[in-house]
């Protein structure tokens, strides 16, 4: 039984999701106390509870009784089973974080699987659905994974109701890769999605990003959504490089101007551009699990976060790998070794 303290390091939900994923894959049970202890609302929230329930369903795990607010659990996995799964978070909790926890596990299933998760697809504190396919998904495909992802319906806070669908086939073993350089930028574009709000909201966001990054009209895309998927708004900036894709995003908020929302995206993208890392800080933290499952590989990142350091510590509890970070002036290099 692996014993984990959820208050260590970054102290958020990623510790739990990584533990669930790797427990299912390795068959090693774990107990975690102080779940999300460093968050304003500690313990399990709806999206974390759904991650527990989803991984338990996929691998037939035995789990101690859990509910919203619970701060400790024990998880004893069984064999990972392929199937057609559907999970409803019941709130605007992040569908992307649930799907991201399921993806590595289902790569180890005994056949193809499909998963439909209902909830929030674009949340202030989680990667948007587009990120999962374009950024994280691109690297996973380079490592040998085969899957398709479809955003069937947007879900904004607080209503939720979005639907993200994953179809995935098993992969005997992910292949180690080296991702040290971005390569030349091939394409850049901005998208503003608006549902149940004035179309001018998206236009104002795009004006900021298109001017800041010299994108041109054809690369500034305003996307109107059905009103029943809102009210809500998100703006995305995608950089496609030769070897990696990065996405920067922000969510519209009541009382916050469209220009302020767009400038948040611009500031994050500018920090990435000023660095020499292949992956941005958020993507770097998510790449650790597939690189560890591949048994090796190296990648560079724009910034080494506490989130990434904590995730590395958890991974090393489950897998026979060592994760090393070498900080440089303009990037940090991560090396995973067996």
Automatic annotation (TrEMBL):
Location within or outside the cell: Cytoplasm
Gene3D superfamilies assigned to the protein according to its UniProt record, in alphabetical order: RNA 3'-terminal phosphate cyclase domain, RNA 3'-terminal phosphate cyclase, insert domain
GO annotations of cellular component type: cytoplasm
GO MF annotation: an example: ATP binding
E.C. code: 6.5.1.4
Sequence positions that bind ATP: 100
Domain of life of the organism encoding this protein: Bacteria
Function: Catalyzes the conversion of 3'-phosphate to a 2',3'-cyclic phosphodiester at the end of RNA. The mechanism of action of the enzyme occurs in 3 steps: (A) adenylation of the enzyme by ATP; (B) transfer of adenylate to an RNA-N3'P to produce RNA-N3'PP5'A; (C) and attack of the adjacent 2'-hydroxyl on the 3'-phosphorus in the diester linkage to produce the cyclic end product. The biological role of this enzyme is unknown but it is likely to function in some aspects of cellular RNA processing.
Annotated NCBIfam families: PRK04204.1-2, RNA_3prim_cycl
Protein name in the entry: RNA 3'-terminal phosphate cyclase
Organism: Zemynaea arenosa
């Amino acid at each position: 039984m692996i014993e984990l303290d959820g208050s260590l390091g970054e102290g958020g939900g990623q510790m739990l999701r990584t533990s669930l994923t790797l427990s299912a894959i390795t068959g090693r049970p774990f107990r975690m106390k102080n779940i999300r202890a460093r968050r304003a609302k500690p313990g399990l929230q709806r999206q974390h509870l759904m991650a527990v329930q989803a991984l338990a369903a996929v691998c037939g795990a035995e789990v101690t009784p859990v509910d919203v607010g619970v701060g400790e659990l024990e998880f004893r996995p069984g064999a990972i089973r392929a199937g057609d799964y559907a999970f409803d978070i019941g709130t605007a909790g992040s569908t992307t974080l649930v799907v991201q926890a399921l993806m590595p596990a289902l790569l180890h299933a005994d056949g193809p699987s499909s998963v439909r998760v209902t909830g929030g697809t674009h949340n202030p504190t989680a990667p948007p659905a587009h990120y999962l396919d374009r950024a994280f998904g691109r690297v996973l495909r380079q490592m040998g994974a085969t899957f398709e992802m479809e955003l069937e319906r947007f879900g904004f806070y607080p209503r939720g109701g979005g639907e993200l669908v994953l179809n995935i086939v098993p992969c005997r073993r992910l292949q180690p890769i080296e991702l040290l350089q971005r390569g030349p930028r091939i394409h850049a574009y901005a998208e503003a999605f608006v549902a149940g709000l004035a179309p001018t909201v998206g236009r104002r966001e795009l004006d900021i990003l298109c001017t800041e990054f010299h994108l041109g009209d054809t690369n500034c895309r305003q996307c109107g959504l059905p009103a029943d998927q809102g009210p809500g708004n998100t703006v995305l900036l995608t950089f496609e490089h030769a070897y990696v894709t990065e996405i920067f995003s922000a969510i519209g908020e009541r009382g916050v101007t469209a220009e302020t929302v767009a400038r948040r995206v611009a500031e994050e993208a500018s920090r990435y551009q000023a660095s020499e890392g292949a992956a941005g800080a958020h993507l770097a933290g998510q790449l650790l699990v597939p690189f560890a499952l591949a048994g090796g590989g190296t990648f560079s990142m724009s910034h080494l976060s506490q989130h990434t350091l904590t995730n590395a510590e958890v991974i090393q509890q489950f897998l026979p790998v060592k994760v090393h970070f070498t900080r440089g002036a303009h990037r940090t290099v991560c090396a995973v070794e067996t």
